[in-house]
Amino acid sequence: MTVSQDDPRSAYEQVADDLRGRIASGALKAGQRLDGNAKMAERYGVAAMTIRHALDILRREQLIVSQQGRGTFVASDPGIADSAEEASTMADELGEIRAALELINSRLDRLETQVRERP
Prior knowledge:
Blueprint: H1 11-25, H2 37-44, H3 48-60, E1 64-67, E2 71-74, H4 80-117
């Protein structure tokens, strides 16, 4: 795929969209190493800086990870990191809600006892 000059999206958005689609379709598999920036720049017909911008987008979306000296890889479980963080946050919030309910129930029990003991 080469970047189209007729496309209203920027070149780096076109590259990011293409790579995103290839990851989603399974053409690029979890753990697979991506080609180097120079090779991708040649394939897409763009500058290496354009590839860097596209990869930055995918890195922020946690679809790829980069390792110093090793390269850039498709994330092991694209999208899972967000879900795991969300689940952890929800579990923490649920724990806080349970604690608040226990406190409310305890206070309610005391009030009911006080009302029953009044003359």
